[in-house]
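sry for the spam today, last one i promise. struct tokens for design, 135 residues
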């Protein structure tokens, strides 16, 4: 009888474990966001997040379902994984700006708005640079 209880307990524990949450690394890129490296950081982090099948979380293509939706718990787990990846890839002075954001999409957008402006300025300069320029 005791063996039967242990088997049922073991089976229920195994059934509740999501393979998506096991052995998930905390860091997906060695590059940490600073005030000066948004372009390389965002490209590296996008690659890392994409390689783990979570890009739709930061692009907004996978918005949060209603908390009453049966898929909400899984969505919240996966979004939290992405949030950990983002938090662990930014410098300590940038972390407070995003820690309280409710979703990885919002974290990503805050960082893009704050540090991605330099990206637009760089692209504008590159487009307006005359051909044959020695700059």
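last one done:
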């Amino acid at each position: 009888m005791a063996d039967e209880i242990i088997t049922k307990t073991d089976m229920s524990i195994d059934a509740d474990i999501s393979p998506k949450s096991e052995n998930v690394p905390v860091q997906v890129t060695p590059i940490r966001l600073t005030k000066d490296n948004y372009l390389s950081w965002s490209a590296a982090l996008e690659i890392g997040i994409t390689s783990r099948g979570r890009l739709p979380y930061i692009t907004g293509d996978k918005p949060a379902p209603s908390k009453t939706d049966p898929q909400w718990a899984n969505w919240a787990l996966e979004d939290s994984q992405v949030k950990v990846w983002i938090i662990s890839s930014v410098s300590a002075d940038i972390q407070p700006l995003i820690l309280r954001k409710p979703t990885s999409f919002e974290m990503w957008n805050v960082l893009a708005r704050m540090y991605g402006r330099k990206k637009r300025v760089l692209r504008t300069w590159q487009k307006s640079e005359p051909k044959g320029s020695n700059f």
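Residues 58 and 108 are 6 Å apart (CA to CA). ok im logging off now
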